[in-house]
Amino acid sequence: MYKLLLPATAALALAGCQGIRDQSGYIALAELTDSIEVGIDNKDSVQRTLGRPTFTGQFDENNWYYVNQMTSQFAFRRPQLKDATILHIQFDAAGNVTSINEADETLAVKINPSGDETPTLGREKSFFEELFGNIGQVGQTGLFGTEQGGP
Question: What are the residues whose beta carbons fall under 8 Å from the beta carbon of 93, sequence distance 6 or more?
Answer without folding.
Answer: 62
